[in-house]
Amino acid sequence: MSRTHVSCNINGDDVEFLCDAGESLLDALRDEMRLMGAKEGCGTGDCGACSILMDGRLQCSCLIFAPEADGAAIVTVEGIADGDHLHPLQQCFLEGAALQCGVCTPGFLVAAKALLDRNPDPTETEVRYALAGNLCRCTGYDKIIRSVLAAADRMKEEVAG
Amino acid sequence: MTITEQRPSYRYVGTRPVRHDGLDKVVGKARYAADLVLPGMLYGHILRSPHAHARIVDIDTSVAEAMPGVRAVITGADFPDLPADDPERNMTRNLMARDKVLYEGHAVAAVAAATRRQARDAAEAIEVTYEVLPHTLDILEAMEPGAPLLHDDILTTGLDSEPSEPSNVANRTCYERGDIEQGFASADVVVEGEFLTKPIHQGYIEPHACVADTGQDGKTVIWCSSQGHFRVRSQTAAMLGWDTSRIKVIPAEIGGGFGGKTTIYLEPLAVELSARAGRPVKMVMSRDEVFRATGPTPGSVIRVKLGATGDGRITAAKAWLAYESGAFPGVWAMLGCMCVVSPYNVENFLIEGFEVVVNKPVNAAYRAPSAPMAAFATDTLVDEIARRLDMDPIDLRLLNCPSAGDQAPYGPKWPLIGLRECLEAIRDSEHYRSAPAAGHGRGVASGFWFNIGEASSATVNLNENGTATVVTGSPDIGGSRASMALMAAEELGIDVHAIQPVVGDTEVVGFTDVTEGSRATFATGMAVVEACRDLKGQLRGRAARMWDCDVEDVEWADGRATHSGGEHEPLALADITAEAGRTGGPLGATASLNARGAGPAFSVQVTDVSVDDETGRVTVERYTTAQDAGTAIHPDYVEGQMQGGVVQGIGWALNEEYIHDADGVMENPGFLDYRIPVASDLPMIETIIVEVPNPNHPYGVRGVGEVGIVPPLPALANAIHDATDARIRELPMSPPRVLAAINSGNGA
Amino acid sequence: MAQVHFSSNQRRLTGGVAEIEIEAATVRELMRKLEEMYPGIRAHLDQTSATAVAIDGDIIPDPMYEPVPPDAEVHLITPLAGG
Ligand code: FES
Ligand code: FES
Questions:
Q1: CATH topology classification for B421-444+600-743
Q2: Distance (Å, whole) CA B675 – CA B658
């Protein structure tokens, strides 16, 4: 089978890879690019573990065909931190114990970043609805929601400060 | 909030440091089993039965073997057939069917090929000829004489007379005390009901995954996602007929388990495929496979009858419990019997349980296995008694509350337990003291779980710079590394981040049982403490050599050696490790033990719900849980376990169920149709950590992992009743069922 | 003397006896004595998965060599499974 050539930007780097036409972007990220941060929890768009940003929009990478990424700018969990400087969401997840097993964490961080990028001051309810596409079986969501709200506060302070 | 009985004050235990493995997990670096890639690695795929029950007449793999990329094909015949009395026999027959398939999704063959797609295509090209057999899916129907039999060698044990014919009932368990006739005769109120629950899945977000690399020397290395890599080793060895020393198991990070990863599904298949192909083989389940072929906790039919005096004392209990264990028998009914009335002192009871096989996936443990269904029945009826007597439901529970020295229904006397303290914590909580909002209903319930001790090992090495490495054999499924580090920090008196907690593979640390039964922080923590205490003795010895004094003159406190005569400046731990090479060599200690005295766990919960009487949808408006943790080593992760358990219980109560069609095919094997709770379904889960220290643990720890899932089922049923007058005795309490109950005026 | 308690299942093998006193230093010795008194009880315990004992409330999954303290309360029960 002939493979499709894709060039795109991932986490700030221009990259090229070959993929099968029917391959998901999630598989391409993991198998071709060896970016293992996005996880497969379901492969059907129901768990959010594979969440990425594509041209700024939150997407389930398991539902996107890899060739669709041609020309796109993609952000995965590996691209959220600024070098060694963690994103406030990452810092607040750590401090707020927002992860137990951690397998849902990459997806939550990406989805929460998408939320805060467009709404820097969400209410608890807004956070809950924005993250409703991400499943976590360990935490009961409580500490995740609190950590996202804490990160929003911290980012507002940073802007103000 | 934490409510603590008296205990010593600690410097590290009870604090909330950032967990040691946290950074890797927030930057996407943590390695889960599916993330591993080895050079030359192949992909495995399993062919599964489309039938609920069928004889395998023939398997033809010839076409598959000739397909592109295919390197190995295996079937059940490629594994030794274990003798009938081997305890692992059923496990092996679950991993790969022999003779018969017993449920839809039962593995029949497996393929290794160069790509995932090639492996899948080849598996689909394997031709299996089945003779379809009649199946049975319903517990009560499966118990009837004449029901289709899954096995022809199950003779029910525990009956009054030995049966002569096989059946689907593996055993009968019975617990009996006092005189129940008289108990009911002395009751002023008698309540009873039949309660039905469906199988539900643990629902961990990470599907089962492993990589096996079998070498020409006949040894294999397995990377896998499991709650216990030593059990992976022994079960894999049993299925392959290998000596365990040929198998090394390296634990990957585990993406949730909740009991479902205490047994194996893939590893021996991957090892065998890898041996045949001469290449590493990765196997990763799809979500569909996870639902069809792993995990669920049993469905159940439970009938309970309770009697109580007019002042609220429970005088008698009669319980009949049937648990479906899937295609092979388990211990689920026995456990249910041991839990069903345990949060209550009852003088007279008769408890009878039946373990029933049906043509569904083989059950695995799920958080406090068998207790939630039993509590659903009992605690719903206790609520009915409270209503009949117009008593506060907490007061009623306090009146019947067991404490140390009372005899538990399953036999032994209770050790020190914290049920009363949990009841009082809820009674005194701001939530319980404020009335529910208009239109909301309130429910309370309590729950019990045993907790387990078992075998654990730990090695603690002091590094030359004064830091320590703590190696244990307990996979970290929810923050246990941080707990180990906190206990070691407390013992050694060094900063918690000067301690590196590590989960060691089967060759670097001593045997350790599975992380189950809420045991890691309790039992493995005990081994860590023991090793640290050994080290403190060694450190005193080294200080004595450095000072050239008697070891009796050296004391160890706050991470330093001090001289009792005050003749020397105190030595910090790092001062001693820096000199270790000159005072006798490196400092390290190992402890292995069988932990005894895991204190039983109790939780009491209160919830307020609203019910939409047009759709039947239940909204959880407020939820508070109190749980006895003994001592909370890392309160964040204790709260996390409490909240996670509650939310799993909420999903079980309101949404989750296995749905099979008439042919025994699962109809909802995905998260779209098997709906677990999402963030927008829930309020914050308020926690009250109750600390009644366990006298059998150096820091008073009790397991906290499981009991939280027990009370939500009855608590929500009771709250829905309070809101609507409808008494629902069947799970899940999904909108159609709630609506039907409201409309039928099913009041109690 | 340890006090051994029998569940109602087990009482079929003990002729209805619910509780006896036995002098035994270990669980192994206790089991040997039980088998002498009630032939077939060990097979019954195995068959019904009652392979654990609770000694003074502490449930021990694989107990053969376990010491039995004097005056201990002993129950013969199923080993637990957990999540
Ligand atoms: S893996 Fe993409 S949504 Fe679950
Ligand atoms: S932390 Fe385990 S699924 Fe979210």
A1: Aldehyde Oxidoreductase; domain 4 (3.30.365)
A2: 10
